[in-house]
Design a protein that fits this description.
The complex is a heterodimer of chains A (438) and B (321).
Chain A lengths: L2 H5 L1 H9 L3 H13 L5 H6 L8 E7 L5 H11 L2 E7 L2 H14 L6 E5 H8 L19 H6 L9 E3 L1 E2 L2 E6 H6 L6 H8 L3 H13 L4 E3 L2 H9 L19 H16 L11 H6 L5 E7 H10 L6 E4 L12 E4 L7 H11 L2 H11 L2 E2 L2 H5 L1 H4 L11 H10 L11 H16 L6 H15 L1
Parallel strand pairs in A: 1-2, 1-3, 7-8
Antiparallel strand pairs in A: 3-10, 4-10, 5-11, 6-8, 6-9
Helix pairs in contact in A: 2-3, 12-13, 21-22
Chain B lengths: L1 H45 L1 E4 L3 E5 L3 H7 L2 H33 L5 H13 L2 H11 L6 H8 L11 H29 L3 H9 L4 H12 L1 H16 L3 H4 L16 H11 L3 H27 L3 H19 L1
Antiparallel strand pairs in B: 1-2
The chains are: A alpha/beta (438), B mainly alpha (321).
């Protein structure tokens, strides 16, 4: 926004050095605002100098550390990397920056589950559409980031096709097959089939079948075509019998049949349980591989099966956006395009397992032949590519998707983790929460 | 000439009349900008539909207040805030006075101990919250492991209401007790030593001296500490927010305080109107409880207090006459 800064690099440097830099920039940008309504226009009428630095905000793991170093070497642009712990916190702070009109990074990573919310304010983001890049991504990945006026507000980073991760050693102790093809055969089918295998497992093991209901829920809800909101903007989460059916089925398996370890995802206990044989299976989008490897450091036996209950499913995956309020939108666009290019996506996959969303990277030799030593040398590239193909449903996610999904996960955890409610009372509270949103 | 003189005298009259206001104006200007304006503006926002990103919407009067007060979550947040506040402020003030009293006596390596009590305050609240929430992890946390070895069943630190409040109050107490102790210590050192000597001559033991000399003499400081910890305690945010991985105050709002509820409304749900309504209600609550606490603490050792003011008045009269 502060176009004045861009054309006067020295002033920029000075104001940066000053203790009141932020305030000064604000004043300057306020002065410059009248002259040029949009900084992008301003940049177009001449060669702009490359900025000294760009800021990028990501959350969890994106696998960008090495890429940033390379980019700095290539271009001389310093990259300030803000790494937020959870996606929810990243979302809250981006909302705050958009509301305040300042404070956002030049590039902000946005997760699929809340991209829709920001679509409501798509004019606060730069249109990244570029004819040369149009065919770069999988169709649905591309379409999700295009608003009603046809502006593309995000470049796709990764996708989350889900496979099943399992502990071969615990399977063996319980008398289940251990070979990944046999396991895939065992677990392929409906959710009830997966739960049945779990019932056999817990009957002869001290470990639980999965970590907690909220992990399994992400797999189930991402297969529902219209889960919480209709395209007309009506909230149907509390009256959708399909959702309630899944809720009941899951809690039956988790609590009644004791398949769940009763751990809420990302909690300290959940992290610890990886080291304690807490559970035997986990839903595994590509990015989860890195999480498991980190938490289960030193634990042998993890493997990946090319199967997923209830058909395929996508969990998460992100986009890089460029908020309009940034000072260096053009340079930021360039960096975002570079980071999401097939070659860089492959390197992010090699770093942390973020599964590429570009067609070229998906077909590449590097992905097709990639294997993961920690997961017993499983051919994760091939498995996840198969899993991506198995995805049939792209659920419709409205602007309240995240908030509603959080409320229903709370409902599950009240029963499964905290044990303070039975499924009915907890559902009633969920209905109550949803009512309050309407 | 005459008129210039006139002007000068007028200027000096103005100077005498108005410049004092000028001298004190920085405080009031600052207060107006960072205190009064946000306060009034919050009320303004609370009376509108207001989206975090889209900004001001329609004027809705008291609708936001009515909506908030009708929510179960609001009353749970109110309960949690009061409960955590009582569990933290009460023990904290008492412990701080006792610690200060011990530090006030002749200790070896006095500075070391005095610095020592301040140490928890230096640790950032985020670090404190992370460490404590690890302690209180339900399944594999330290506290429950220790309880387990001595044969006590695991306590639902992160699922039940009262245990979670106790855990959070312990974080607050850990952080603030030492700080308050130092404030009390400073006040105690201002207590004239001859009062203690006199009490000792009269045959008062240490406990009696503490209760009848130290505590009454600390009254203004106690009021100060109670008021500040009332404000801090009712606005408690960091500790409950960092108590679990989500920071929403539990699956059932077990430890969702008013500020967390406010944050959820404003930032997660993007509804600044509702969030501001909660902020205004919280402000009124703090004022109300502040007044209650003020009147209670004023009564600490009132008997003494009144006598003293009476005798002081008499003394003052004596001097004047």
């Amino acid at each position: 926004m502060s176009t004045t800064d861009l054309t006067h690099p020295r002033r920029r440097r000075l104001s940066q050095a000053a203790a009141l830099g932020a305030a000064a920039t604000l004043v300057l940008s306020a002065c410059g605002g009248g002259a040029d309504a949009d900084s992008a226009d301003n940049d177009a009428d001449g060669d702009t100098e490359a900025p000294e630095s760009l800021s990028v905000t990501t959350f969890n793991e994106f696998g960008y550390e090495e890429l940033f170093e390379d980019y700095e070497e290539q271009t001389g642009i310093r990259i300030e990397h803000n790494k937020v712990d959870t996606a929810e916190n990243a979302r809250d702070s981006l909302r705050n920056s958009l509301g305040a009109g300042s404070g956002a990074s030049d590039i902000e990573a946005v997760e699929l589950d809340w991209l829709v919310e920001f679509m409501q304010y798509s004019d606060r983001f730069e249109d990244l559409a570029d004819p040369e890049l149009e065919d770069r991504w999988l169709d649905w990945k591309y379409d999700d980031a295009v608003d009603e006026e046809g502006r593309q507000i995000g470049y796709g980073t990764d996708i989350g096709p889900q496979a099943l991760c399992y502990r071969a050693d615990l399977f063996e102790e319980a008398g289940l097959p251990t070979d990944r093809d046999d396991v895939a055969e065992l677990l392929e089918g409906e959710w009830e089939n997966y739960f049945d295998a779990g019932r056999d497992f817990v009957a002869s093991s001290d470990s639980a079948w999965y970590s907690g209901s909220d992990n399994i829920w992400q797999g189930m809800i991402n297969q529902v075509e219209v889960p919480f909101e209709t395209e007309d903007g009506e909230i149907i989460a509390d009256t959708n019998s399909e959702v309630q059916g899944l809720y009941d089925q899951l809690l039956q398996a988790s609590v009644e049949d004791e398949l769940s370890a009763g751990l809420s995802q990302w909690s300290g206990d959940w992290n610890d349980a990886f080291q304690r044989d807490g559970f035997a299976t986990m839903l595994c989008p590509g990015w989860m591989l890195g999480v498991i490897e980190g938490n289960a450091d030193g634990v042998d036996g993890w493997d990946v099966a090319d199967a997923f209950p209830g058909g395929g499913g996508n969990w998460g995956g992100s986009y890089l956006t460029v908020p309009t309020q940034g000072e260096n939108v053009d340079a930021a666009k360039e960096l975002a395009a570079w980071l999401t290019a097939p070659e860089q996506q492959i390197r992010a996959f090699e770093a942390i397992g973020a599964f590429p969303s570009t067609v070229e990277a998906l077909e590449s030799e590097e992905i097709q032949s990639a294997s993961e030593e920690f997961f017993n040398d499983a051919p994760v590239g091939e498995i996840l590519a198969n899993r991506a193909e198995a995805i049939e449903v792209q659920p419709f996610k409205g602007p309240n998707y995240l908030v509603i999904n959080v409320a229903i996960q709370d409902a599950l955890n009240r029963v499964d983790v905290d044990g303070i409610d039975d499924p009915e009372t907890s559902w009633d509270k969920f209905v109550n929460d949803v009512e309050a949103m309407k | 000439m005459a008129s210039r003189k006139h002007l000068r005298s007028r200027a000096s009259a103005w100077d005498r009349k108005y410049s004092p206001y000028l001298y004190i104006s920085p405080f009031f200007l600052l207060f107006a900008v960072v205190g009064l304006f946000p306060l009034v503006y919050t009320v303004w926002v609370a009376a509108h539909d207001w989206d975090l990103i889209m900004g001001q919407g329609e004027f809705v009067g008291f609708d936001n207040f009515a909506h908030v007060v009708g929510q179960r979550a609001f009353w749970i947040a109110l309960r949690n805030t009061l409960s955590i506040f009582i569990l933290s402020t009460g023990p904290q003030v008492v412990a701080a006075i006792i610690i200060a009293y011990m530090l006030d006596s002749h200790l070896r390596a006095r500075t070391f101990w005095r610095m020592g009590v301040l140490l928890p305050y230096v640790v950032t609240p985020v670090a404190v919250a992370l460490i404590f929430s690890n302690f209180f992890s339900q399944r594999f946390g330290l506290v429950n492991s220790v309880l387990d070895t001595i044969g006590i069943d695991a306590i639902g630190w992160q699922s039940e209401v009262l245990p979670s409040h106790l855990a959070i109050a312990s974080m607050v107490n850990f952080r603030w007790t030492g700080y308050n102790a130092l404030i009390f210590l400073a006040a105690m050192q201002a207590v004239p030593r001859d009062l203690y000597e006199q009490a000792e001559i009269d045959g008062a033991g240490k406990v009696r001296q503490f209760l009848s000399v130290t505590v009454p003499m600390l009254r203004p400081t106690i009021i100060f500490v109670v008021i500040t910890s009332t404000i801090g305690g009712l606005q408690i945010f960091d500790e409950p927010r960092l108590y679990d991985q989500y920071g929403r105050g539990g699956t059932d709002g077990q430890w969702q305080t008013m500020t967390i509820y406010l944050y959820e409304l404003g930032w997660t749900r993007s509804d600044f109107g509702l969030a501001s309504a909660v902020a205004v209600l919280l402000f009124l609550l703090i004022v109300a409880i502040g007044i209650i606490n003020f009147t209670i603490t004023r009564r600490i050792a009132t008997g003494d207090g009144r006598k003293k003011t009476a005798s002081r008045r008499r003394f003052a009269k004596g001097v004047r006459s």
